[in-house]
Amino acid sequence: MKKPEIKVFCDFDGTIAVEDIGNLFYREFGNPEVCDDFVQKWREGKISSIECLSGECKTIQKLTIEKAYNFIDQQSIDETFIDFVKFCKENNLELIVLSDGLDIYIKRIFEKYNLDIKFYSNSIRLNEDGTAEMIFPYTDTSCLRCANCKRNHIINNSSDDDITIYIGDGYSDRCPVEYVDYIFAKKDLLRHCEINRISYFPFDNFKSVQEIIEKIISKKRIKKRNTAILKRRELYLLEP
Question: Does residue 166 contact residue 154 with C-beta atoms inside 8 Å?
Answer without folding.
Answer: yes
